[in-house]
């Protein structure tokens, strides 16, 4: 290639790397067919992270969420990067430092932008976000990854999530389908969330080569009914757990939960232990808990599942002493901008000391969108001394 053409190419590639949309490039006529292909490829991707301090990085991992003190980041790890010289290493201790039981990080533009600043990029034309990930040991679980979702004065125009993901100790590529999504303004370029339930011993994992791509072969994702059985809770570390016990209600100060209780589970290694003191801490005289997707979603986020293939919800329960009364076990009922499509319940239920299976009938119910996957509620009037009870194998089938 002669010097004149080389100068043209360098200038054009520099401009292309700053272009957030997947637009067709106007290529100088003197450039060869091979070089034309290389230039077009340059504008078909938009990098979130390639290597530390490269000009290709367009977002900053500044939006720490949940138990923020449980997170450590090394954005220049040289421990076996997928490509280049560095990868990002995250260490999640799962110590619940802020009492949330989960933690995550958003890549934002500008840094620390939760929608209060005008930033973001027009990513129109991009059809997927791809990234590479591996765990230090394998078995680490990322509950979800997401593009967009920043609210505020300058909200993102889309919110798309995927997960859960169980990592291996080798690099694997993962993608989020963005076809037909409004990507005209995205300030939350990428995020991940992990929970203490699924990573009871913590997790160390690595991310690399995070980028948006204009891949014309990708087709729009169809929101199909989930296959049965569909678990709310199987075991503490199960990648099949699809909801989080985050929606504490009423006298929430009266509740303690251990999702890794190992003494006499019905099946597997663990069950859920719930202790309700009945002390009327918030003056409500009742308490309850929702398993939600995503965590703390009271209808403000599009996070539900199509569970229309299910005919019932089954679960196993027992009381510590026997005689504990749960007024209601329920699915659905979350209201808001993204409301659940129906509600179904069973109760009251008087528990025994032995494991018993219970069922919530879903026949005739519209459960095509459920973000409130499971719920229980009780009160001090029927449990004046409080109640300790256990749950296991909560699933749609």
Report a brief summary of the structure:
The chain has 397 residues and is mainly beta.
Walkthrough of the structure:
The chain is mostly beta strands. It has 2 domains: 48-213, Galactose-binding lectin (Jelly Rolls, Sandwich); 230-396, Galactose-binding lectin (Jelly Rolls), CATH 2.60.120. The protein contains 2 helices and 26 strands. The strands form 6 sheets. Strands 1, 3, 4, 6, 11 and 13 form a 6-stranded antiparallel β-sheet that branches. Strands 14, 16, 17, 19, 24 and 26 form a 6-stranded antiparallel β-sheet that branches. The chain has a 5-stranded antiparallel β-sheet with strand order 2-5-12-8-9, with no helix packed on it. The longest helix has 16 residues, at 3-18. The radius of gyration is 24 Å and the shape is globular. The model is unreliable at 1-32 and 34-42 (pLDDT under 50).
């Amino acid at each position: 290639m002669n010097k004149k053409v080389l100068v043209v190419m360098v200038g054009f590639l520099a401009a292309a790397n700053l272009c957030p949309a997947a637009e067709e490039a106007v290529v100088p006529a003197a450039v060869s067919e091979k070089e034309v292909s290389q230039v077009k490829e340059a504008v078909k991707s938009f990098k979130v992270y390639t290597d530390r301090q490269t000009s290709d990085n367009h977002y900053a991992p500044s939006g720490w969420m949940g138990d923020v003190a449980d997170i450590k980041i090394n954005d220049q790890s040289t421990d076996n990067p997928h490509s280049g010289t560095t990868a990002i290493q995250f260490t999640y201790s799962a110590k619940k430092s802020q009492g949330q039981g989960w933690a995550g990080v958003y890549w934002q533009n500008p840094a620390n932008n939760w929608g209060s600043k005008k930033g973001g990029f027009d990513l129109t034309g991009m059809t997927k976000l791809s990234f590479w990930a591996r765990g230090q040991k394998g078995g680490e679980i990322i509950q979800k990854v997401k593009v967009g979702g920043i609210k505020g004065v300058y909200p993102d125009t889309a919110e798309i999530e995927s997960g859960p993901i169980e990592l291996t100790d080798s690099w694997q590529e993962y993608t989020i389908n963005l076809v037909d999504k409004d990507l005209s303004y995205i300030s939350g370029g990428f995020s991940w969330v992990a929970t203490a339930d699924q990573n009871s011993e913590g997790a160390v994992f690595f991310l690399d080569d995070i980028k948006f791509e204009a891949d014309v072969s990708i087709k729009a994702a169809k929101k199909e009914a989930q296959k049965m059985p569909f678990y709310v809770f199987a075991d503490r570390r199960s990648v099949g757990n699809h909801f989080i016990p985050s929606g504490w209600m009423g006298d929430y100060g009266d509740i303690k939960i251990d999702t890794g209780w190992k003494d006499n589970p019905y099946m597997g290694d663990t069950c859920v232990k719930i202790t309700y003191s009945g002390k009327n801490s918030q003056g409500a005289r009742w308490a309850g808990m929702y398993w939600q997707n995503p965590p703390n979603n009271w209808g403000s986020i599009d996070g539900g599942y199509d569970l229309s293939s299910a005919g019932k919800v089954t679960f196993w329960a027992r009381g510590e002493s026997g005689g504990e009364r749960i007024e209601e076990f329920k699915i659905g009922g979350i209201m808001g901008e993204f409301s659940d499509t129906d509600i179904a319940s069973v109760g009251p239920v008087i528990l025994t000391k032995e494991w018993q299976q219970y069922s919530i009938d879903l026949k005739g119910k519209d459960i095509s969108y459920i973000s409130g996957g499971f719920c229980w509620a009780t009160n001090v009037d029927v449990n004046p001394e409080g109640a300790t009870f256990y749950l296991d194998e909560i699933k749609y089938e």
